[in-house]
Amino acid sequence: MLLGVIADDFTGAGDIANTLAKGMPDVTGQAGGLVVAQYMGVPDRQADPAIEAGVVSLKTRSIPADQAVAQSLAALKWLQAQGCRQIVFKYCSTFDSTPEGNIGPVAEALANALGVAGVIACPAFPTLGRTVHQGHLFAHDRPLNESGMQNHPLTSMRDADIRRWLGRQSKAPVGLVPAAVVRAGPEAVATALRAAATKGETLAIADAATDEDLVTLGRAAAWAPLITGGSGIAIGLPANFIRAGLEAGTATRFEGVTGPEAILAGSCSGATRDQIEVHRRDHPALAISVDDVMNGITTSHDLIGFFRQNVGKQPLAFSSGNPHEVAATQTRYGREAVAGRLDELFADTARQLVDGGVRRLVVAGGETSGAVAQALDLGDLRIGPEIDPGVPILISQKRGIALALKSGNFGRTSFFTHALDALSGSASDRRQ
C-alpha cells in the first residue's frame, strides 16, 4: 500500500477513494489512478497486497475530540503497518466542525505522531464550487457561513475564515499559503510550508480555486508524510507515485448489480431536499416524522413494510427537513438524541433490507451513511465508476451488493434515479 487515507466520515471516504481511483488525466488524456479499497473502520487484518491506496472510513466528525483522536491514531498505526508512504487526513470540503474540533485536534495528533509541521490544510473542491481565498472558504459565490452550512444541525459553520476557525481548534498557530504563492508553483509552496514549520505552525491553510492549484499543492507535498484536506487535495497524488516508477493499477471493473433497490435519505441539506422533491414526483416516497420516531410510533417495521410494497419502483424513505423544522425538533428532544434515534432507525432498516434481498442501496447524508455502513458489515469495499462528482459506486463482495453513499450536498437533482441506474450498470450520462 502506497497511500493511506483517514476519513472522518463514510461518504467523505468514498469521495476521496473515488478521486484516487480516477487519478488526474495526463497530457495524453489517460487517467492515472490507484487500486483503491475502502474499509469500514480500522481493519483487524492485513490488506490485500494488490491495494495501492487504502481508505479507512471512520465516523469521527461529530464525536468527542478525544475519541476522534484515538480512533484516528489507531487508523494511522494500521496504515503504517501496511507500508503506506503518505497519509491523508480527509475531512469535508465545507470544513464541517465545531469550534472545539474535530479537524484541528485530529490533524495535530497525526502530525505529532509523524513528527511533522507545516502540513497543508485545504478543503477546496472546485468541481463542486468549494474554493479557498486568503484563508476564507467559499461555496460557489457565497462565504461558507452564508451558504446554508450555518444551519447544519451538527456542525454549523458560522465563520468563513477557516484559518481563524482552525486556530480555535488547534494548540499551535495556523499558517497560510496564499494564492500568489500557490500560483508560483510547487517549489514556492514547499518553501512556504518549510517556513511555516520553522515558525511553529503545525497546519497551514492553503488557498486553491482550481484543480490546477490542487495539483500544485499535491506536487509540493509529493513526499510529505501527512496532508490534510477535502477529497480535492488528492487529485494530483496518484501521479506522484507514478512519476516515481510506482505504477498504478486499473480501476475495478464493474458489471452492475441487479435486484431490489431502496433509497434512504437522512440529510437535511438543500441539495438533498431538492433531490427528494424531484424523486417523489414519479416514485413512491415515505416522509418520516421525527416526532413519531422519537415517540416510538414509527419504527423500522413501518419502513420495511413500505419498501416491500414498492419493490421495483425505486422507493425512497426520508427524514429530511428544512432548517426551521430541524431546529424545532432538536429543541424538543435534544440534538444528540434526535441524531442517535434517526441513525438507529436507518441502520436497522438497512440491515433488514439487505438481509431480505435488497441488492442496490442509495443513502444520502454523511451521518446516515456512516450508521448504515457500520450496521451492514460490508467488509472491504472496492471502488467502482463515478456516479456524480465525489460519489463513486461502492462494491461489497462480502454482501453481494452495490451502494452509493452520498454526502448531503452532492449530486444532480435527479441523483436517486441516476444512482440506481448506475448501480445496475445502465446509467446514462444525461445530467439534470
Commentary on this structure:
α2 (65-81) packs parallel to α3, α6 crosses α7 (211-220) and α12 packs across α13. The chain is α/β, with parallel strands linked by helices. The strands form three sheets. Strands 11-12-7-13-6-1-5-4-18-19-20-17-14-16-15 form a 15-stranded mixed β-sheet, sandwiched between helices. It has helices at 10-22, 65-81, 103-114, 162-169, 179-183, 186-198, 211-220, 237-243, 270-280, 290-294, 300-309, 323-333, 335-355, 366-376, 415-423; strands at residues 3-7, 24-25, 31-32, 36-40, 53-57, 86-90, 119-122, 130-133, 136-139, 142-143, 174-177, 203-206, 226-229, 261-265, 285-287, 316-318, 360-364, 381-388, 391-396, 401-406. The relative contact order is 0.14. β2 (24-25) and β3 (31-32) form a beta hairpin.
Q: Quick summary of this structure?
A:
Helix content is 38%, strand content 20%.
Question: Class by helix and strand content?
Answer: alpha/beta
In percent, how much strand structure appears in the residues?
15-25%
Radius of gyration of CA atoms, rounded to a whole number: 21 Å
The biggest beta sheet is recorded as: 15 strands, mixed
Strand arrangement within the widest β-sheet reads 11-12-7-13-6-1-5-4-18-19-20-17-14-16-15
Low-confidence stretches: 247-251, 428-432
The quaternary state of the protein chains shown equals single chain
Percent helix range: 25-40%
Number of helices: 15
- How many strand segments? 20
Distance between the termini: 38 Å
Shape field? globular
The average pLDDT value, as a whole number, equals 92
